[in-house]
Amino acid sequence: MEFVLPTFSTAAKIRVAITCVIFICSTCFNVAALWTITHKYRKKSHIRILIINLVTADLFITLIIMPMDAVWNVTVQWYAGDFACRILMFLKLVAMYSSAFVTVVISLDRQAAVLNPLGIGNAKKKNKVMLCVAWVLSFLLAIPQLFIFHTVSRSDPVHFVQCATVGSFREHWQETIYNMFTFFWLFLLPLLIMVSCYTRILLEISHKMKEGCVSSKEFDLRRSSDYIPRVRIRTLRCLCLCIVLTFIVCWTPYYRLDIWYGFLPEMLIQEKVPPSLCHILFLFGLFHTCLDPIIYGLFTIHFRREIRRVCRCTTRKSNTWPSLGTGSFRISTTAVPVRRVAGVPGGSEI
């Protein structure tokens, strides 16, 4: 089969443009979230630690994967050399692992908060241990990238260099096993844990609601200055479904593409799957970093209360602010990330 050199096609140009938009949005949302948590709200809590780690993981994806993908699509071939090829592919997988694993840690923390509300005293210590495990696993599981990826060059019909896995596997089934290994750790296992955790949360709260146990007296056992005493089951159900569905909607198309590469590479090589579809499937995975800073807050009373408070503050201080754009940024900075996991019962208000 004649080798056809890839080009910077129209579909690739659209992919780069959308990636740049996602990059700007994700950077603004996550930096705003990080600044708010670390500066505006100085009181420490185990929830803040979780959110800081999730924002860090999302910024990891934003600042490593997105720029690399955009530049790579523009240049078409790899110009950064073999060392950068190995390191960037390694960091790319670290970023993806860390984002998935920290999301799992948050799910486990919310489950513990509901099923064992009296164990809040040990929550901070347990979360630190789980976060350490999550980050260590992220780096360990990504180590094969350092040996699998390398620069591959060819001179016919023209000199062309690419960062790829060509020649790293003796048989195709070995590459398939590796792809399925990453698929399990990056998508399947986190999804199963999240579904399990949020299903148990819904069942537990529904059970207590039916028995009439959800009252301010019961929750007084775990109340603090940053605790939500009442939970609306309808809002909670929407929140849990939204978290799981967002993970599925954003990452399923991306890993569908990965499965094609693993099991049916000829479909991509022979372009039986349109290249434009491949670009679209890849972009789905990037949207998750934009949704993370806001998804937990949209369904909580506290988030809406913060929006109203800041809007009133904006109205009163409009004469002192230089422009509407500045005021709008302050609203998003204050409100978007502040109530990230507050909607989950037993959670802490950030």
Brief sketch in words of this structure:
GO terms for molecular function: G protein-coupled receptor activity; peptide binding; protein-hormone receptor activity. This protein is an all-alpha fold.
SS summary, helix count: 12
Average per-residue pLDDT, rounded, comes to 76
Q: What would you report as the Rg, rounded to the nearest angstrom?
A: 23 Å
Relevant CATH superfamily of the largest domain: Rhodopsin 7-helix transmembrane proteins
Kindly give the count of domains.
2
User: Approximately how much helix is present in the residues?
Assistant: over 70%
Q: Report the β-strand fraction as a percent range.
A: under 5%
* CATH architecture descriptor text of the largest domain: Up-down Bundle
The CATH topology annotation of the largest domain reads as Rhopdopsin 7-helix transmembrane proteins
Domain G-protein coupled receptors family 1 profile: 29-296
GO biological process, one term: cellular response to hormone stimulus
Membrane topology: Multi-pass membrane protein
Transmembrane segments: 12-37, 49-67, 87-108, 129-149, 183-203, 238-257, 277-299
